[in-house]
């Protein structure tokens, strides 16, 4: 079977019109298609199809309404990236120091290089093999040069995690024994299995945002883990939805100041485009603000600390 023939931007626009999309400003629409790949753009039009198997759109579907959904996604990715960074820095610290405080206290303090200190040895090996490849990208870094010259190319874990991808950090935690997982999770105030799941979810969300993948009308994997009491109280929350992943990020932010900032920002985006968004397709229930507010932790000491700086 032959691949589809490439189309000019004008032909792409005509194809949308032929399929029923209403275009009020053709010049503006062409400019948008020149900036946003046609294949990416039409991903936001899926909800408007008469039949999922065909590309004919429902009557009244406008180019602008599709583009607004693209803008929603763009805004949400920017928002998530900013707050995931806060969580990422925090968990790099917690995982590195939690493990090192248990396993790396005796000379030569390099027990994180020994796979016998990890339960999932295959997973551990994959993380370290990937880290060694990644380290080559940073070979001109002063950190890498310093440890190569003075420490036979070995690094403390709290240095290594700064060069690891967040996905590898998540996998490293997953590879640990329960004893080290519990130390880290206990310091955070969460169960080890939930923390493992939430780190995985955040890594998935981070990668989607970093690669400009579509968040809207997307099912996420793995499903987010919540307590049974929460799920009983909120059957409207689908744990494979964007809202579920938003809730995970909110819960895993390190202080209430960050949590309130994230909550306010996400409410602003959602309400700005409320007329264009099908809330069901992002899993946001009608009471999403209430649910988010109820999951802001009471960390006044942290908030007061950050206000000093």
List how many beta strands DSSP finds.
0
- Detail the poorly predicted runs: none
**Cα radius of gyration in angstroms:** 23 Å
Number of helices: 15
Which class best fits the helix and strand makeup? Answer: mainly alpha
- Largest β-sheet summary: none
The number of domains is 2
Question: Cα distance, first to last residue?
Answer: 62 Å
**Global geometry:** globular
Instruction: Give the overall pLDDT as a whole number.
Output: 92
Helix content: 55-70%
Along the chain, the helix and strand elements come as: HHHHHHHHHHHHHHH
Binned strand content? under 5%
Structure report:
- This protein is mostly helical and 309 residues long.
- It has 15 helices and no strands.
- It is globular, with a radius of gyration of 23 Å.
Q: Would you kindly provide a brief summary of this structure?
A:
By secondary structure, the protein is mainly α.
List the helices and strands and how they pair.
Blueprint: H1 9-18, H2 26-35, H3 38-43, H4 63-103, H5 121-137, H6 142-150, H7 157-160, H8 166-175, H9 178-188, H10 192-210, H11 228-233, H12 242-252, H13 256-272, H14 288-294, H15 300-307
List keywords for this structure.
309 residues; mainly alpha; 2 domains; 0% strand
């Amino acid at each position: 079977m032959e691949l589809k023939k490439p189309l000019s931007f004008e032909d792409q626009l005509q194809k949308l019109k032929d399929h029923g999309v209403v275009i009020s400003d053709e010049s503006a629409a062409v400019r948008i298609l020149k900036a946003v790949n046609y294949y990416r753009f039409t991903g936001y039009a899926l909800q408007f199809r008469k039949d999922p198997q065909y590309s004919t759109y429902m009557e009244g579907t406008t180019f602008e309404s599709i583009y607004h959904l693209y803008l929603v996604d763009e805004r949400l990715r920017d928002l998530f990236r900013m707050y995931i960074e806060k969580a990422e820095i925090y968990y790099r610290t917690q995982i590195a120091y939690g493990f090192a405080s248990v396993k790396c206290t005796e000379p030569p303090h390099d027990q994180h290089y020994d796979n016998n200190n990890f339960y999932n040895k295959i997973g551990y090996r994959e993380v370290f093999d990937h880290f060694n490849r990644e380290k080559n990208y940073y070979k001109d870094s002063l950190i890498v040069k310093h440890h190569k010259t003075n420490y036979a190319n070995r690094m403390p874990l709290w240095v290594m995690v700064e060069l690891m991808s967040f996905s590898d950090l998540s996998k490293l935690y997953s590879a640990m024994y329960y004893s080290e997982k519990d130390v880290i999770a206990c310091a955070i105030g969460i169960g080890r299995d939930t923390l493992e799941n939430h780190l995985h979810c955040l890594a998935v969300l981070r990668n989607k945002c970093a690669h400009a993948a579509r968040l809207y009308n997307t099912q996420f994997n793995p499903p987010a883990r919540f307590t049974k009491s929460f799920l009983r109280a909120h059957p409207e929350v689908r744990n494979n939805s964007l809202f579920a992943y938003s809730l995970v990020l909110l819960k895993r932010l390190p202080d209430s100041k960050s949590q309130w900032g994230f909550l306010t920002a996400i409410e602003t985006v959602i309400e700005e485009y409320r007329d264009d968004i099908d809330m069901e397709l992002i899993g946001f229930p009608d009471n999403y603000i209430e649910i988010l507010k109820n999951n802001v932790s009471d960390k006044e000491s942290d908030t007061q600390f950050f206000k000093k700086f």
